């Protein structure tokens, strides 16, 4: 890899033949690439925790909550898809991102609030992936250790070295300029999610056949008194389970950024709705199978993660492969969730300092034959490297951050998934106050607000429990 010339290409100059009508790079996204982005962002390794969530809710409430949030996510996603183009005097103009859509439909103050919530949520998700990926890396080491030393061996290992490896990989990948360059990574990540979910399902079925029964299950899940479970513990576990399922579907914070990668014809909102339907349908099938079959396999003792919580020890090589697929998927998912933050900060800096060469100049870099050229930007290199490094440091410093992420998810779920989409819909469609349509979306928003508050309360319990065992930089499994 060499720099062809020290002469910069100033301010991201782009050949006019390869631009859209607004001067931005021509978009090439399709329903397939958008679906891959959605599946990559939605089907996280959290799919493997749904057996535990089902165990807390039982055979009745578990499926109801799962399919209920699938329907809510699909409905609000359709509302949000229609908000990509501006209403009013600027009708038809692209909004490019979530906060831009809120500004166009609802005004500046709510746009700023949306931007803050979105930034915090995306940052928290990035840190969560920084913690989750090394756990799967370490699980491969532990699986091999269990195979050699026996299932009773501790086989504990520090995850810090895996965080560093993850960070180095992300520093390189984060230099991809924007969402338009992530299609291949998202497709690979989506395939990986199918692969490890399928392996998990296969292992669950094998366990069910081996045990010949599902007696250790119940209509209401784990019962009070079972294993020392108290009433308060039951309440908190149910709230956490509902929160896990609700937030497992959430991709609203990056939906419009994904829609901005689509070609202008056919209309982006129509294609995005089809992609959302495909993504959510595929996700729901895998979520339902993993949750229900995992519960049937392990009953009320279902682990928090089927692969890293060692619901399965053998065949160890298959467990290793599944965890490797999880790692590859989360590497891609991390990029999908941090690109909106990168783009928002970089676009703001370009508007603030349009003549600054450090921010605006790009240098052509010749890559290997057949790959093409790459444009290096000094500000992008420094800023994105710093961001990735910061998420890695926080991940090692606060290894219980997944509990915090649950709280952030609870606080961000309602405004990003319900409030802003329904408010923009009411403004765009001119919905009259107290009409049937107004009542429908308002009641839905209020119900989900209550769910968010309750799940936030449940997350506090997890944070308090984690703080009791907290040791800085002691990230071990």
UniProtKB/TrEMBL annotation:
Keyword Transport: yes
Cellular localization per UniProt: Endomembrane system
Keyword Cell inner membrane assigned: no
Sequence ranges assigned to domain Amino acid transporter transmembrane in this UniProt record: 27-464
GO MF, one example: symporter activity
InterPro entries associated with the record: AA_transpt_TM
Swiss-Prot/TrEMBL keywords: Amino-acid transport, Auxin signaling pathway, Membrane, Symport, Transmembrane, Transmembrane helix, Transport
Main localization of the protein described in the UniProt heading: membrane
Lipid bilayer topology: Multi-pass membrane protein
PROSITE patterns reported for this sequence: PIPLC_X_DOMAIN
GO CC terms in record: endomembrane system
Transmembrane segments: 34-53, 59-81, 119-140, 183-209, 277-296, 316-337, 404-420, 441-464
GO BP, one annotated term: auxin-activated signaling pathway
Family per record: Belongs to the amino acid/polyamine transporter 2 family. Amino acid/auxin permease (AAAP) (TC 2.A.18.1) subfamily.
Functional description taken from the UniProt entry: Carrier protein involved in proton-driven auxin influx. Mediates the formation of auxin gradient from developing leaves (site of auxin biosynthesis) to tips by contributing to the loading of auxin in vascular tissues and facilitating acropetal (base to tip) auxin transport within inner tissues of the root apex, and basipetal (tip to base) auxin transport within outer tissues of the root apex. May be involved in lateral roots and nodules formation.
Listed name of the protein: Amino acid transporter transmembrane domain-containing protein
Organism: Linum trigynum
Lineage of producing organism: Eukaryota, Viridiplantae, Streptophyta, Embryophyta, Tracheophyta
